[in-house]
Amino acid sequence: MFSHLLSGDFPRSRVLLVVLLLILAGLTFAPFAFPGAKALNVAAKICIFIVLVASFDLLLGYTGIVSFAHTMFFGIGAYGIAMAITRLGPTWKAIAVGTAAALIASLALSLLIGLFSLRVKALFYAMITLAVATAFQTLASQLSDFTGGEDGLSFRVPEVLTPGFSLSGHPFLGVNLDGKLISYYLLVAVTIVLFLAMLRIVNSPFGRVLQAIRENEFRAEALGYRTVLYRTWSNVLSALFATLAGALLALWLRYNGPDTSLSFEIMIDILLMVVIGGMGTLYGAVAGATLFIITQNYLQDLMKVASSGLAGVPLLRDLVHPDRWLLWLGILFVLSIYRFPTGIVGKLRARAQRAP
Amino acid sequence: MTFALETRELTIRFGGHVAVNSVSCGFAPGTLTAIVGPNGAGKTTYFNLISGQLKASAGRVFLRGQDISASSAPQRSHLGIGRAFQLTNLFPNLSVLENIRLAVQSRAGLGLNMWSIWSSHRGLISRAEEVLETVALTAKRDLAASALPHGDQRKLEVAILMALEPDVFMFDEPTAGMSVDEVPVILDLIRGLKSRQDKTILLVEHKMDVVRELSDRIIVLHNGALVADGEPDAVIASPIVQEAYLGIEVKA
Q1: Which of A271, A302, B56, B198 has its Cα between 20 and 30 A from that of A322?
Q2: Closest B-chain CA to A212
Q3: Which of B104, B112, B153, B170 to mutate to test the interface with A (most CBs of A within 10 A)?
Q4: First to last CA, chain B
Q5: Does B90 contact A219 at a Cβ distance shorter than 8 Å?
Q6: B72 and A226: CB-CB below 8 Å?
Q7: A with B: how many residue pairs have Cβ under 8 Å apart?
Q8: CB contact under 8 A, B117 and A8
Q9: Quick one: which of B87, B22, B21, B11 has its CA closest to B54?
Q10: Angstrom distance (rounded) from CA B80 to CA B168
């Protein structure tokens, strides 16, 4: 049963298993264990980025394709929801229409990019995706009539998902059973389903071919695999899952704009999360996204504490001043990549293999 | 009689250099043909043209009488042309078994199956295990291919070809760089294939004793052209081979 759900792909390291269970438990009980709006937002962001990073890993880690257009598909999903609800009103039908339209747009665009450019060398492909993504971002911020331009679109969601909706007048374990909570659990459920779906894809015969292509494309061709076809499929699937992650983001934030879903910063964040978690393993996406987003959101708070604790020490006090948090974030990532080139998951699995 | 494989005036030019020059040759089903010639004679390039890794500048390739000149390498693989490479060409970070299983999976046409778990296809795995057994690599099945010593990598290269079960087997110096005690495993495999009498085998090999023992026929390539073709003993004894291939000056 479990084996079937996980597609036979187990964590293969006891430490990793514990880490993953902790993350799962943390996300499941977040509203109760970590009260407050910020904590819930961080937990929701982790869920969304697990899907987004896993979908990018399908492309980068499993197939070995470097693309910078991943946030474009993320943005298409978010804009699909935002534009559909803005026009059709806060209904489930609008959500369905928006998601479907976004999926179709992503399918067409990823197919087009794939068929036209997957034959070229890796570096050129990365450049082409960069150009397309930049063009798309400019387009999104210029077409204000449709996209709200730089300001983006704020919109309402179906009532059941709003903080105003209440399931019961009485709080449960000190938490109001409101629409925000329903949204959150819907998000967690969809995240789990999408993650398991991707886990199935990478562990299917198809997923095995993707890894073969990453290892030696020439040989895969000689074995009879038409690699252009497989790379295109990988591109399309990865884009579709990113689109769904974008739709989740927009629904959670009830807002979407170019900086929220299309910015190049997000692209770099995704890259870092994949590498830190461990390329070519979807569990890496879970570990990488969780670690990255928690650090991004709480490092500054941690430094505030440290800084006030060191108030008497002149140089050190300034070094850990909360304003320097980006410096420390950078140092942390450089160190982690330097120390764990195969990512958290790669490192843990290698350790488990050495000491069985 | 239809040839299992035939090339007609097959030619490839790289700039001004003609690497394979109008080679016309038919290979009868069930025979083993050795292809010999000095380094740079165009043997590997000839193979690449047949298996589709390179596109010919001119000429055609026929498989069982059917023109496959326009087919891509993956298509030719599915049509029954199998190829082992001279320079070991594996999936380095995948396990030994997986290297073979991928070949079995390709043959089974399951590559685009996205919704089943790979390990649920037990048949593919057990077939891969069978092939692994024939090259005596069973004990190393879970190692990464890159972790194997050179000789074992050569065996794996041949095992991948076996797993594809093609009609035409192309071996490009299968025993190159192998230690003396490892060579028999590969030769036994080739002998086994030959004894089935339904497979067509092309073999590029430098070891003349191996060539003499295994082949039904030898063709000689020199500067990209076919310069001799015939019974092994006759070809080996011919002045052109003595001179062009073995580098022995033939005294007039």
Answers
A1: A271
A2: B91
A3: B112
A4: 40
A5: yes
A6: yes
A7: 104
A8: yes
A9: B11
A10: 6
pLDDT in tens, A2-59: 899 999 999 999 999 999 999 999 999 999 999 889 999 999 999 999 999 999 999 9
Q: Which architecture characterizes domain A2-354 according to CATH?
A: Orthogonal Bundle (1.10)
Report the complex ipTM: 0.92
Helix (H) or strand (E) holding B227: strand B225-230
Whether A219 contacts chain B with CB within 8 A: yes
Q: Which amino acid is at B147?
A: A
pLDDT, position A356: 57
pLDDT at A315: 81
pLDDT tens figures, A123-141: 889 999 999 999 999 999 9
Of all residues in chain A, the one with the smallest CA distance to B74 is A224
Show the domains of chain B with their CATH numbers: 1-71+202-252 (3.40.50.300)
Q: Of the candidates A176, A151, A178, which has an alpha carbon nearest to the alpha carbon of residue A166?
A: A178
Query: What are A173-213's pLDDT values in tens digits?
Result: 878 888 999 999 999 999 999 999 999 999 999 999 999 99
Extents of the domains making up chain A: 2-354
Q: Where are the beta strands (DSSP E) in B15-91?
A: 17-27, 32-36, 58-63, 66-67, 81-84
